[in-house]
């Protein structure tokens, strides 16, 4: 699928972050239309809900605070399924669906039809567009089995609406843009923004011109210091912690950090660069310039890279969000100037939260732990071979899910329930394991109702494992004692922000439960268009005027 358009090459980028004043540009006449001229979806990768408030004293008035003050805050917003990782998060923000329908069951999975591992946006039929690695360009939304709200917007306007997705991560740009929009992601090896032949046969002139300015190389020369004096960062623990990961090439995980192009993604300037490029798209694609609603989907990936390395109690994560607040102010001020106050709608959310580093919790006498590498898979294999005989009983172990060898099971007349019982009898007694559940034939009575619903929404017959190992809160599987991750059904991974702002949005807040699946149908009501075809959510009526 190719789309041919030509655009002006203009624009410039801010090469350094500075605290911004409260002065808002007013270059566009502020006339409110019945529908927004532009919708801007902002997904912050790995943003816990608490970050809106924990670092609030250091936020200015024009970023996160403005969204909350002038918009509508869904304070009890949760994920509605149990695999809280980047690919599914971005997919289901924009589809209102569940992994069981969308097919987006993880960042990676074992495909039962092909008998091999699959990456969420991989597509071997396409090629890189732009100056980037061949592998980085073999990406598209082919694996997404349902439509997005951005697809529905395009359909409703006979494909005259413009949709652009931008993110450092390919999956953070591709899945929000849907099957019919344009998507751009960053190739860290070349330092360029790229796309694939799914979208076009050449990089747009404005995107090529942006790459030619070598902005990432300039950011990579910056030394990362805290924006404010580090001693004022009292919302996070001491800087030098043995369980934090180090940026590549550094001996300690402490400030100041030297940046290279290869480590830019884990610093605040990954966010700055993302917004630079997104605003270049806003200008050159002329988004929001007429009465036909356009859509700009921005995902800030850097908080996830930094969060994995340093953990949610780190000085680095605090500084990432203090500086991201400046980027949010820059975004809103630019939208005021380019599109006009009252002419656009913004929503802010996240693709998942994050667990505490287990060593941090244990240091403070709280229950937590780490399953290292094959600590679980090895004893499972031994149990099955001892009880059922030799053979490759487990074909894959991904996303805490076990993919069983159905051919071997049929030959030896063994059922999924039998394997579940064998594993549960041994593995279920290990410290840190909560339960082994049968996804194919799930018994919801065995787990609390709020978690049962999340588990039920996971199982896709072609892409999910038959069994899933549920760990206890505070535990996860990893390959290092440093850093942290996400992917569970617990509140630290599922409770994320949802703030609405702008055209058609009330001022206020609610503590009533809302869900990620509610975002797409709420937008469909705002825009008077059909909700995505795999939608399971409900419009949040309190949000809309």
Tally of extended strands? Answer: 22
Report the sheet with the most strands, covering strand number, pairing sense and barrel closure: 10 strands, mixed
Structural class: alpha/beta
Total helix count? Answer: 18
SS strand fraction? 15-25%
Low-pLDDT runs: 1-32
Helical coverage, percent range: 25-40%
Strand order of the largest sheet: 6-9-8-7-12-1-13-20-2-21
Mean pLDDT, nearest integer?
A: 93
The radius of gyration is: 23 Å
Overall morphology: globular
Give the termini separation: 38 Å
Task: Give an overview in words.
The protein is α/β, with parallel strands linked by helices. It contains 18 helices and 22 strands. The chain has helices at residues 51-54, 64-70, 86-95, 99-102, 149-156, 170-177, 205-212, 215-219, 268-284, 302-310, 315-338, 358-363, 377-388, 406-411, 416-427, 449-456, 491-494, 519-527; strands spanning 38-44, 72-74, 77-78, 108-111, 116-119, 128-129, 163-167, 182-187, 192-196, 223-224, 257-258, 294-300, 344-350, 369-372, 394-398, 401-404, 433-438, 467-471, 475-478, 498-502, 508-510, 514-515. Strands 6-9-8-7-12-1-13-20-2-21 form a ten-stranded mixed sheet, with helices on both faces. Strands 15-16-18-17 form a four-stranded antiparallel sheet, covered by helices on one side. Helix 3 runs parallel beside helix 6 (170-177), helix 9 (268-284) runs parallel beside helix 11 and helix 10 runs antiparallel to helix 11 (315-338). The radius of gyration is 23 Å and the shape is globular. The protein starts with 37 loop residues before the first strand and ends in an 18-residue tail after the last helix. Mean pLDDT is 93; it is low at 1-32.
């Amino acid at each position: 699928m190719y789309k041919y358009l030509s655009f002006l090459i203009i624009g410039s980028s801010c090469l350094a972050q500075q605290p911004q004043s409260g002065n808002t540009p007013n270059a566009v006449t502020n006339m409110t239309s019945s529908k927004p001229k532009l919708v801007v979806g902002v997904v912050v990768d790995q943003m816990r809900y608490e970050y809106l408030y924990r670092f609030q004293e250091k936020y200015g008035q024009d970023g996160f605070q403005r969204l909350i003050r002038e918009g509508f805050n869904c304070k009890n917003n949760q994920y509605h399924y149990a695999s809280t990782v980047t690919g599914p998060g971005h997919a289901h923000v924009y589809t209102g669906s569940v992994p069981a329908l969308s097919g987006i069951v993880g960042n990676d999975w074992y495909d039962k039809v092909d008998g091999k591992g699959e990456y969420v946006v991989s597509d071997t039929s396409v090629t890189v567009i732009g100056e980037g690695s061949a592998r980085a360009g073999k990406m598209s939304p082919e694996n997404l089995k349902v439509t997005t709200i951005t697809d529905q917007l395009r359909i409703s306007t006979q494909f005259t609406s413009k949709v652009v997705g931008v993110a450092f991560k390919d999956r953070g740009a591709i899945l929000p843009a849907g099957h019919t929009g344009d998507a751009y992601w960053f190739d860290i090896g070349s330092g360029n923004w790229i796309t694939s032949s799914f979208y076009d046969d050449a990089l747009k002139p404005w995107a090529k011109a942006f790459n030619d300015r070598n902005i990432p190389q300039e950011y990579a020369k910056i030394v990362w210091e805290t924006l404010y004096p580090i001693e004022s960062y009292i919302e996070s623990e001491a800087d030098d912690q043995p369980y934090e990961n180090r940026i590549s090439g550094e001996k300690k995980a402490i400030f100041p950090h030297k940046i290279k192009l290869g480590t830019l993604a884990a610093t605040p300037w990954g966010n700055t660069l993302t917004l630079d490029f997104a605003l270049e798209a806003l200008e050159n694609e002329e988004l929001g310039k007429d009465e036909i609603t356009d859509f700009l989907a921005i995902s800030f990936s850097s908080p996830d890279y930094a969060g994995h390395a340093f953990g949610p109690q780190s000085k680095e994560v605090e500084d990432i969000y203090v500086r991201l607040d400046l980027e949010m102010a820059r975004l809103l001020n630019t939208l005021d100037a380019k599109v006009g106050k009252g002419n656009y709608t913004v929503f802010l959310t996240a693709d998942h939260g994050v667990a505490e580093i287990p060593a941090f919790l244990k240091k403070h006498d709280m229950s937590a732990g780490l399953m290292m590498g094959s600590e679980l898979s090895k004893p499972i294999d031994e149990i099955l071979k001892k009880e059922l005989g030799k053979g490759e009983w487990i074909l894959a172990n991904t996303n805490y899910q076990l993919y069983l060898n159905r051919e071997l099971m049929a030959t030896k007349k063994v059922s999924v329930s039998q394997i579940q019982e064998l594993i549960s009898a041994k593995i279920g007694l290990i410290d840190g394991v909560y339960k082994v559940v049968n996804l194919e034939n799930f018994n919801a009575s065995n787990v609390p109702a709020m978690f049962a619903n999340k588990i039920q929404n996971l199982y896709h017959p072609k892409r999910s494992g038959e069994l899933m190992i549920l760990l206890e809160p505070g535990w996860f599987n990893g390959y290092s004692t440093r850093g942290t991750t996400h992917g569970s059904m617990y509140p630290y991974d599922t409770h994320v922000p949802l703030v609405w702002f702008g055209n058609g949005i009330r001022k206020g807040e609610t503590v009533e439960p809302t869900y990620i699946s509610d975002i797409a149908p709420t937008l469909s009501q705002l825009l008077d268009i059909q909700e995505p075809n795999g939608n399971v959510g409900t419009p949040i009526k309190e949000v809309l005027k």
